[in-house]
Every structure is written in structure tokens, then in C-alpha cells.
Design a protein that fits this description.
Layout (H helix, E strand, L loop, with lengths): L14 H21 L2 E4 L8 E6 L3 E2 L1 H8 L4 H38 L10
Helix pairs in contact: 1-3, 2-3
Length: 121
């Protein structure tokens, strides 16, 4: 090994490989966030419970919320449906930004050409 060689060059990723890895990770995380059900705090403050609202792909599942509340009035059901809609909307925003950001980055890496090192210099 000569003194001009970088010893870390063998173990580090190139910038292009790093962006490709980050794009794949963003797509996978975005897809997982879209599929995993959203949960909110349950109505009983004495017990630590949660209610399933639905997923970012399927939307809010109102019948499931009504079953989870069991003996509740209409105002409480409407409040929980609104809370679930906000939670699902936030999850959908994060999931779509990650997934489509990863797709755009992957497309950019596939379309933009790498610079070839100048053989003269």
C-alpha cells in the first residue's frame, strides 16, 4: 500500500451507491408505513389501550372504530373518527413522501449518467 491510497476507500460506499441504498430504504419504509395499521389511544384513560383506525392505503375503518368504542354516544364516535382521519392522513403523507421520493431518486440514478474519469488527468 502506498501512502497516496485512501485506506477507507475499500470499506466506504461511493456517493452513487449510498443514494441508491437510501432510495431503496425510503421506498421500503414508505411501503411498510402505508401497510401497517394506524392506532390511536383508546377511550379508557385508566387502561393503556389503543384502537385500530385502518391503514394509509385503506383509509379509516369506521365500523371497527364503532366496535372498539362499544357503549359510546354519537359525539364520541364522531370525535374518534375525526382523530383517526387525521392520524391516517399524517401517516399517508409520510409514507407517500418516502415512497415516491425513493422512486424519484432511483429513477434519477438510472437516468443521470456518471462522469467518467478523465484519462488525461
Amino acid at each position: 500500500m502506498t501512502t497516496s491510497e485512501d485506506p477507507l476507500a475499500e470499506v466506504t460506499l461511493s456517493p452513487r451507491a449510498f443514494f441508491a441504498l437510501a432510495a431503496v430504504a425510503a421506498m421500503v419504509i414508505g411501503l411498510v408505513l402505508a401497510l401497517v395499521p394506524v392506532r390511536v389511544a383508546g377511550p379508557d384513560v385508566a387502561r393503556a389501550t389503543s384502537m385500530q383506525c385502518g391503514s394509509a392505503l385503506g383509509g379509516v375503518e369506521t365500523p371497527g372504530i364503532a366496535l372498539g368504542l362499544q357503549n359510546s354516544n354519537r359525539a364520541e364516535l364522531v370525535g374518534y373518527v375525526a382523530m383517526c382521519e387525521r392520524a391516517v392522513s399524517e401517516r399517508e403523507t409520510f409514507a407517500s413522501v418516502l415512497f415516491f421520493g425513493g422512486v424519484v431518486t432511483g429513477l434519477w440514478l438510472g437516468v443521470v449518467r456518471r462522469r467518467r474519469p478523465d484519462p488525461a488527468g
